[in-house]
Amino acid sequence: MCAGLTPRVASPAELPRRLRALLRGSGEIVIAASPAGSALDLAPDPSLPGPKPAGPGRQRGRAGSVSLPGSAPPAAALDGLPALSLDPETAGQLQAWAGADGAVIVPTSGSTGCPRQVILPVAALRAAAAAAHERLGGPGSWTTALPTHHVAGLMTIVRACLAGRPWRQTAGDLAGLRRPAGDGPHYLSLVPTQLYRALAQPATAAVLAAFDAVLVGGASLDPALRDAALGQGLRVIRTYGMSETAGGVVYDGEPLPGLSVSLRPWPGAGTGGRIAITGPTCFAGYLGQPAASAAVLSPAAAPPAVLDGAFEREAGLSSPDGLSGQPGQPPAAGAVPAAGVSAPAAVCRTFLTSDLGFWDGSRLQVTGRIDDVVQSGGADVDLAALQRQLDAVFGSSQVVAFAVPDLVWGSRIMAATAGPVTADDVADRLGGRIAAAARPRAVIRVEAMPLTSSGKADRRALATLWEEFARGDNR
């Protein structure tokens, strides 16, 4: 592996500048580290030799390092960034997938299993940013309240950097969020829970309404919450995507320019199916997991020419102030890349997601995950559908559904809340909205809803809490 492609771990404070250097042609592989500086989690891959980690499948090393079978000691740091050393086979695979232009490595959400490390080549980042700006109506400044070591937050940096416009990060509770200033457009990225809480605070909602678009993704957006936001003057866009697609690639049910969505047949999905996404934004593979990568990735036809101009326009990187909080000048339409910077050719791939959906006219509706369906008492229970009903009645993620193993029923449907909601409240207020098999058998109270590092409700953690409670470990 050449020196330029040695993986480097970037802290949240360093990440914006490393991304800008990467997009300017540094050729690095940048690993987006969490605020705590935690090491990468590598899910075991049967195709790899050596011992597999014990427990639930997580393999954790020291901060800023990853240990794989046969790996050498970490290489020397570059510019103060800790380096990552991989075994020769994984290193060669990473180099092939990243290409000469480099890549970013980000984790999946880990909400239903051990996070995988997603390799996003520079061309995929550029394609995703170009497609988003084309749909939104043009490059703009970006503000996020999301962690930047996950793809939704990271892509706000990429978009701002390629546009030569300001980027800002605000607190997750939106405290201190300012009205956008300077030339627009101005874009904001949130998750549904943040939107729900913001609408309860008129002053915060008024600030959100000052943005040209508020992108909401990371979880299902309840239609009632969306309508409430629109009623308060917010220009809300519901996004769908994941780490493997370089963030949201479907806006309000419609694929972004240069991408397509298809549905593969799936048992019990009726007229819908398993969602497959094709386009130049798809990832190259999972780090250290060639078998898992091959199971969900396949080559596809060359990306549509509609994105060619967008690549050129957003390759300019004309403003060095785009990440400083000062207004930068966006590249002129049709601008060629800055000196020494060339937009890498995008590779088009098809990614078979773990999500189910159906077409509502020309718009994609996501209904849940293939692993969201559990059996309880001989009946199939769709936890995603149950969650949508809970969100509609109690508010976004105020009551979270999960399942635990049960010797009699197969799976027992449960719910958790950090608020004053009881099992009787759930039964009474859901009424006839759900089948009897889907009704939560108990509601547990938690001090705070456990979340994954990407901000989603952590069902695995809730199941563990219930098991501890059932054993009496809470005493």
- Number of DSSP strands? 22
Instruction: Write down the domain tally.
Output: 3
From the N-terminal CA to the C-terminal CA, the straight-line distance is 53 Å
By CATH, the superfamily of the largest domain comes out as ANL, N-terminal domain
Q: Helix/strand/pairing class, anyone?
A: alpha/beta
Query: What does the overall shape look like?
Result: globular
Text of the CATH class of the largest domain? Alpha Beta
Topology:
Blueprint: E1 7-10, H1 15-26, E2 29-32, H2 88-98, E3 103-107, E4 117-121, H3 122-136, E5 141-144, H4 151-163, E6 167-169, E7 186-190, H5 192-199, H6 202-209, E8 213-216, H7 223-231, E9 236-242, E10 247-251, E11 254-255, E12 260-264, E13 273-279, E14 285-286, H8 290-296, E15 297-299, H9 308-313, E16 349-360, E17 363-369, E18 373-376, E19 379-382, H10 383-394, E20 399-406, E21 410-417, H11 423-430, E22 443-445, H12 459-471
Parallel strand pairs: 1-2, 2-3, 5-6, 5-7, 7-8, 8-9, 21-22
Antiparallel strand pairs: 3-4, 4-14, 9-10, 10-11, 12-13, 13-16, 15-16, 16-17, 18-19, 20-21
Helix pairs in contact: 1-4, 3-4
3D architecture notes:
- The chain is of the alpha/beta class.
- The chain has three domains: about 5-120, no CATH class; about 120-365, Rossmann fold (3-Layer(aba) Sandwich), CATH 3.40.50.12780; about 370-470, GMP Synthetase, Chain A, domain 3 (2-Layer Sandwich).
- About 25% of the residues lie in helices and about 25% in strands.
- It has helices spanning about 15-25, 90-100, 120-135, 150-165, 190-200, 200-210, 225-230, 290-295, 310-315, 385-395, 425-430, 460-470; strands at about 5-10, 30, 105, 115-120, 140-145, 165-170, 185-190, 215, 235-240, 245-250, 255, 260-265, 275-280, 285, 295-300, 350-360, 365-370, 375, 380, 400-405, 410-415, 445.
- A seven-stranded mixed beta sheet has the order 6-5-7-8-9-10-11, sandwiched between helices.
- Helix 3 (about 120-135) packs across helix 4 (about 150-165).
- The longest helix is centred in the first third of the chain and has 15 residues, at about 120-135.
- The chain is globular and about 60 Å long.
- The relative contact order is 0.12.
